[in-house]
């Protein structure tokens, strides 16, 4: 994995909560459940910091709305597919974003024992997208 991204500028969205209908169980698709989403969107932020102009960055609200549309939209079986769709939509909408890290979690899962959530985390850069 390319770890150079760890030292780069990024927009940070944490603790996004949405109700969606993803999962392999019939009950998940019928009743839905809460999903937690975290996003890091990597892009150059120096110009925005110098100009204090949103046109030189990307609106957090726009990324939030994009994630909401994916999670609250059509059902997927796997969280991997939900996360990948969020990444692909971000790349399609914002050319200035060079890489994205997305975490999608389910706090209400059918496991024996207490958990905060179970989920997936993916990192994709434009150069490693298929």
Concise summary:
With 130 residues, this protein is an alpha+beta fold. Helices cover 30% and strands 28% of the residues.
Overall description:
With 130 residues, the protein is α+β, with helices and mostly antiparallel strands. It has a single domain, classed as GTP cyclohydrolase I, C-terminal domain/NADPH-dependent 7-cyano-7-deazaguanine reductase, N-terminal domain (GTP Cyclohydrolase I, domain 2, 2-Layer Sandwich), CATH 3.30.1130. It contains four helices and four strands; from the N terminus they run E-H-E-H-H-H-E-E. It has helices at 26-31, 46-51, 60-71, 79-93, and strands spanning 10-20, 33-42, 99-106, 118-125. The protein has a four-stranded antiparallel beta sheet. Helix 3 packs antiparallel against helix 4 (79-93). The longest helix is centred in the middle third of the chain and has 15 residues, at 79-93. It is elongated, with a radius of gyration of 16 Å.
Defining key terms:
GTP Cyclohydrolase I, domain 2, four-stranded antiparallel β-sheet, alpha+beta, 130 residues, 4 helices
